[in-house]
Amino acid sequence: MQKVSQPSPLTQKPDQARRRFRLGMVVFFAMIAWGLLTAADRPKLGLALLFGVGFGLLIERAQICFTSAFRDMWITGRTNMAKAIIFGMAASAIGIFSYVQLGMEPKIMWAGPNAVIGGLLFGFGIVLAGGCETGWMYRAVEGQVHYWWVGLGNVIGSTILAYYWDGLSPALATSWDKINLLATFGPFGGLLVTYLLLLIALILVIGWEKTVFPPPVLSPPRPLRKAHENSGPRLSPRYGWRTLPLSGHRHARSHAFAEERRDSGSGQRLSAVD
């Protein structure tokens, strides 16, 4: 095994970067044109294609990933993505509420073991894969080869579930009751409960950020006069008295001394580094 003493330098290829940028722009505008042409004959399919292009651009530029949002809270204390997801859910809630008020039929799902089992499998999967459904998509397109295999496993797993769903669905989902919270709380009550839960989640996230990962406290700079007063000779435990020099016209700057001992024929040598 060879020990790496220093990182290899990064090589930049401006010509290759420009060519790839032009190719990406050609593909992007081709997809926009394809969506517009499709919308002329089949509006739903064309709009779905255009919304898909916009959604992909949004999640790539914003680096939206539910895995990163929850993982960063525990590892680094970074809560920006978690707060962004909460605000995004608040915006989508008022959008869905508006469509329901306009007469669109809401989609009510089953409340059974499928929710618990699916949530656990999803949680283990995103931790092992390092990304959620949105995260692996834009990372795979960015060229991270690891997420190509994540996407392949996602497609294989979804295909297997669809193949066996008819036999599994009665025990996991379809035989259980559908819970309609709109019928329980009403449209405005449901919206109020949703925003109340999102507010509680936001308070917990902010509290976690402030208590577990507080910002560092910076000490105030020493005044010039005090620095000059404390710039006298100091006693070194090894080499006796040493004077710390000061430099600068407007403010004092202390020098850090690195003491280096080397065995030589004549004795020991001391070196000071600023």
UniProtKB/TrEMBL annotation:
Protein name (Swiss-Prot/TrEMBL): Transport system permease protein
Cited InterPro entries: Sulf_transp_TsuA/YedE (IPR007272)
Pfam family name, one: Sulf_transp
Organism: Klebsiella michiganensis
Chain intervals with Polar residues compositional bias: 265-274
Region (Disordered), start-end ranges: 223-242, 252-274
Key words, A-Z: Membrane, Transmembrane, Transmembrane helix
Ranges that cross the membrane: 21-40, 46-70, 82-102, 108-133, 145-165, 185-208
Lineage, top ranks: Bacteria, Pseudomonadati, Pseudomonadota, Gammaproteobacteria, Enterobacterales
